[in-house]
Every structure is written in structure tokens, then in C-alpha cells.
């Protein structure tokens, strides 16, 4: 196999005004689920998020119920269909039936939704929804949507004229439970997509052309493989690095990779995991684990030599070992990270908790340990 390359782009722009497709950041990760009320309860209790807005029959929504949860700038929206599909058809019903609970929309906040949509469609994006306005007593929001891999979409959200709890049609809602004293995370760091074999470069090119994103990192070769399975990954990002999308595809290997398993159980390409940025990964892991979140295990042997190549970190190696937190260092600094097990019955969507100290990497030094941990779980499921 070829050696892994890991490089930063020469064209990354730090001034959003120079971008052909300027963005303000991630607006929301929108999940299609079978029961949004129960999903909202799980993410409130297990992830420490706060319910802030709601839309449903009481607000005039006759087809769906949606719950909006936040933690810092991170926003999740859980939507389910509330009428039987036989009498009130809805594309979300089909989506949940085929894919299970999963991410249907990676919504991006933009300064001008009409301009962003026009640029994207002009450069080859498949339109999902032309620009339209939503209004209520809090003002006006402008939205549009384009398609990306699988059945995932990007809704482009312009909020400059709106100051409500989420979007017009939603009302403020009280928290389901009191959030923990320690904020578990405060922002979405990156969102990872899995695509079919041979299509990674196609979708990287899509983001380059359609949204003006640049190539931030690339991982191919021995460092992203184990004895049994392999994958390839490239990371695209907007010019200010506020929005980062790693794109994975499977690679030929002896056994089924984590990407193959995802594609089989999700029924095609989609969002594999969402990385959440925290300022204190130790307290976050303790809090979430106590609330029932299950994380991937890491053998003690990983920590025996960790200090030799990672060096000093804010968290002592003994604590990292206790909590099974991974560490990695690059030329810019270091990071600490840990991954949950899948959060639904299908082995599809999971989460990453990441604490950064200078490093803008993705834990390349941990790939082998991470993939071996995932393989152990695949083997338990009979899917390796």
C-alpha cells in the first residue's frame, strides 16, 4: 500500500469575504428519527443537551414533530413523522424505514442563502429546495437546500433577519431535564460522511467545485489500515475552517471495513459520525458515561508507550488510561479524543468527543487503535 499523506492546503483562506461560498458555520445537524420525543429525551439526559425549541401539532405542524436541542453553538434537530404513512405520506417515513435513525441534513449558516444557492447550482449542485422565506413575529429567515451524498442534504440558512428560538414555526421550549453542571461540549468540530467504494474523490470534487471548499487533509495507505480492514479519507473545509467534512470510502482488504458495515446497515452513503468539541474531555466522559453513554474500549497496551510519542498533555496518561481517551500530537499541538459506540440499534451513527490544543488534525496517530477497537465491535456483531 502507499504511504499515508497528511497535508494542509496551500489555498486555505482565513478571510471569509474572499470565499466564493462564504459560510458562518454549522447551523444544525438534523436527524430523521422514528420517535423525536424519545430521541430528544436521550440526548438531553445522556449528552447533556438543552431543549430550546419545538414544532408540532400544537404549533400548526400537521405532518411532523421536531425538537431542537443545543449545547453551546452545537444544535441538533430531531424530526419524526406523526401520521401513519398509509394516510399521510412523507419522505421522512421512507427515510427512517430504509436507513433507521440518521442524519438527513447538515445545515450550514450562510450570510446570503440566495447567493449561496445560486453559486452552488451554477457549479453543479442538484437543487432540493429553491430559496424561500419563513416569517413570524421574530423576523424572517431565508432557506434553500442542495443535495449531497446519499440522501443527505445541505440546507443553507440565512438568519440575519431572524432572532427567534430556531426558525419561524418553532416556539421556545423548556428543558426536558436540568443540564449537567459541566457543559459536555460546546461546538460541532466536524461531520464525517461515508460513501461507496470509488466515490470519495467524486464527492471531494463536489465540495471543491460546488461550495468552494479546499482540501484540508488526506489519509490513504498503511496508517489508515489494520491487518483486516482499510479505508481512505479526505477532509474538505470552507476557507475559514469553520465547517469541516471528512469523506470516507472503503478500501480493498481481507475483511469488511467499518465503512462497508455502515453502508450495508444504513443502506447507502450517509453521515457516519459527528465530532463534538469540548474544553474538558475528562469531565465530559465522566458525565456522559455516568448517564449511560457507551464508549469504545482501548487496550491498556496503547497507553504503555503513549507518553513517549505524544509528550506531556493537560491530562495525565494514567487518567487517559482510566477513561480510555486517545491522544495524538502533530506539528501544531495535540488533541484528546474518544468515540462512542453506535447510538442506535443499527451500527451506523456514532459520536466523537474531541479536545484540541493547537492541533487541527483528526488523530492520525490513533487510526490503527481506533479501527481495531471498531473491528472488535464488528466481530461481536458478526459483521467483520
From TrEMBL:
Pfam families assigned: Glyoxalase
Enzyme class: oxidoreductase
Domain VOC: from-to ranges: 25-159, 187-341
Keywords assigned: Dioxygenase, Iron, Metal-binding, Oxidoreductase, Repeat
A GO term, aspect molecular function: 4-hydroxyphenylpyruvate dioxygenase activity
Gene3D superfamilies, alphabetized: 2,3-Dihydroxybiphenyl 1,2-Dioxygenase, domain 1
Residue span of region Disordered: 1-21
InterPro entries, alphabetized: 4OHPhenylPyrv_dOase, 4OHPhenylPyrv_dOase_C, 4OHPhenylPyrv_dOase_N, Glyas_Bleomycin-R_OHBP_Dase, Glyas_Fos-R_dOase_dom, VOC_core
UniProt cofactor(s): Fe cation
Keyword Repressor: no
E.C. code: 1.13.11.27
NCBIfam families hit by this protein: 4HPPD
Family indicated by similarity: Belongs to the 4HPPD family.
Protein known as: 4-hydroxyphenylpyruvate dioxygenase
Organism: Streptomyces vulcanius
Amino acid at each position: 500500500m502507499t504511504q499515508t499523506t497528511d497535508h494542509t492546503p496551500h489555498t486555505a483562506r482565513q478571510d471569509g469575504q474572499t470565499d466564493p461560498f462564504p459560510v458562518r458555520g454549522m447551523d444544525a445537524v438534523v436527524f430523521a428519527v422514528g420517535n423525536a420525543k424519545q430521541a430528544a429525551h436521550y440526548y438531553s439526559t445522556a449528552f447533556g443537551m438543552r431543549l430550546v425549541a419545538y414544532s408540532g401539532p400544537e404549533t400548526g405542524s400537521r405532518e411532523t414533530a421536531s425538537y431542537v436541542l443545543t449545547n453551546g453553538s452545537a444544535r441538533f434537530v430531531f424530526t419524526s413523522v406523526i401520521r401513519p404513512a398509509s394516510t399521510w405520506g412523507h419522505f421522512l417515513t421512507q427515510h427512517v424505514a430504509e436507513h433507521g435513525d440518521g442524519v438527513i441534513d447538515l445545515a450550514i449558516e450562510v450570510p446570503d442563502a440566495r447567493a449561496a444557492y445560486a453559486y452552488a447550482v451554477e457549479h453543479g449542485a442538484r437543487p432540493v429546495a429553491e430559496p424561500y422565506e419563513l416569517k413570524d413575529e421574530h423576523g424572517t429567515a431565508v432557506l434553500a437546500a442542495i443535495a449531497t451524498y446519499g440522501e443527505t442534504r445541505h440546507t443553507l440558512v440565512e438568519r440575519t433577519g431572524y432572532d427567534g428560538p430556531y426558525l419561524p414555526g418553532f416556539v421556545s421550549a423548556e428543558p426536558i431535564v436540568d443540564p449537567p453542571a459541566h457543559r459536555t461540549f460546546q461546538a460541532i468540530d466536524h461531520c464525517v460522511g461515508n460513501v461507496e467504494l470509488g466515490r470519495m474523490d467524486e464527492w471531494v470534487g463536489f465540495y471543491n467545485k460546488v461550495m468552494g471548499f479546499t482540501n484540508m487533509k488526506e489519509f490513504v495507505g498503511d496508517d489508515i489500515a489494520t491487518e483486516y480492514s482499510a479505508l481512505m479519507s479526505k477532509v474538505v473545509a470552507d476557507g475559514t475552517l469553520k465547517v469541516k467534512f471528512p469523506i470516507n470510502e472503503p478500501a480493498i482488504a481481507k475483511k469488511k471495513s467499518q465503512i462497508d458495515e455502515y453502508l450495508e446497515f444504513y443502506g447507502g452513503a450517509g453521515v457516519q459520525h459527528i465530532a463534538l468539541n469540548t474544553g474538558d474531555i475528562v469531565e465530559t466522559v465522566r458525565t456522559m458515561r455516568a448517564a449511560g453513554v457507551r464508549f469504545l474500549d482501548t487496550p491498556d497496551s496503547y497507553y504503555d508507550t503513549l507518553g513517549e510519542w505524544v509528550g506531556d498533555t493537560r491530562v495525565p496518561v494514567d487518567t487517559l488510561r482510566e477513561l480510555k481517551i486517545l491522544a495524538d500530537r502533530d506539528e501544531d499541538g495535540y488533541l484528546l479524543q474518544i468515540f462512542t459506540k453506535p447510538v442506535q440499534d443499527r451500527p451506523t451513527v456514532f459520536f466523537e468527543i474531541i479536545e484540541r490544543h493547537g492541533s487541527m488534525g483528526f488523530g492520525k496517530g490513533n487510526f490503527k487503535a481506533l479501527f481495531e477497537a471498531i473491528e472488535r465491535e464488528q466481530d461481536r456483531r458478526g459483521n467483520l
